[in-house]
């Protein structure tokens, strides 16, 4: 993994994700140089990171606005994409109660939709009804004249990613190239569901995942008998749990085997090891709707796939990087071994030879993204 900050894993992971979303190395290098000293202070340096990346995003977006005003929409789209990636990177690194964070999130959404409008990428903003409210999603259709009802994957986020990040790293484009649509959800606990609608994460992920299937079944451009479920990072818990109990899903992918996320939290509290986001404990309590650390720790004991993956009775793929510093590699083997009812349970560990060895392949997503989408294409083809 590219590690410009030797003492700050969290920042390094964010830099790699920004590159995967389409950030420019020259712009990112300038931001890194401006915040190098702040990186050594951990969470205390997040304000400098936030301000630097916001300023970079504003500069790039202004250039995109100038291109757009001149009628050069292709050039504008390229700049809006980078600006959006920088806004995502800045926003996710701040404390949840930091006042400018909400404005940064709004700016990110506006910039993303400017990118979509200028690029012409197939991406539809939708809202999925849920629990008397709704959660936002992006529907990326692969339907064509010759393939009017393609299969579809529902993709859920992890602990702190957002649907726009998933789009920018190229997952829906890779699926579309293989004739598969994608519904990327900001499920309860992330993105707009949490920030705008106040919906926290829940253990019973099949409840919100089932509403996504309801929405897809109402469409005429989806093969409703070929809908799959996948997620990355904490989505490696969410997606298998959903597929285990929501029987309309026909296959499942865990990109990062978060088999015992609750145990990881117990261990993290004891050891205070590397954290995936700044202000970690405040962040996870916000995500899970808890105001007390002890209440959160009690809740976390129930966040496990033991006794759950045994109920998955569809093809199941577990993908993991051998150098994942957030989810123990042993959990990938555990999810695979316990999927005893799956007609095809596959495990793929990515090594240094291939790349994609870090958490959710932040060091090199292409080989992992390609492997996953090829596997999905093959499994859906077998159902035809």
What does this 3D model show about the protein?
There is one protein chain. This protein has 384 residues and is α/β, with parallel strands linked by helices. It folds into two domains: 9-117; 122-383, Alpha/Beta hydrolase fold, catalytic domain (Rossmann fold, 3-Layer(aba) Sandwich). It contains 15 helices and eight strands. The longest helix has 24 residues, at 46-69. It is globular, with a radius of gyration of 20 Å.
Give a topology summary:
Layout: H1 9-20, H2 25-39, H3 46-69, H4 73-91, H5 100-119, E1 124-130, E2 133-140, E3 152-156, H6 163-168, H7 171-176, E4 181-185, H8 191-195, H9 206-217, E5 227-232, H10 235-245, E6 252-255, H11 261-271, H12 280-287, H13 293-300, E7 316-321, H14 329-338, E8 345-350, H15 366-383
Parallel strand pairs: 3-4, 3-5, 5-6, 6-7, 7-8
Antiparallel strand pairs: 1-2, 2-4
Helix pairs in contact: 1-4, 2-3, 3-4, 4-5, 9-10
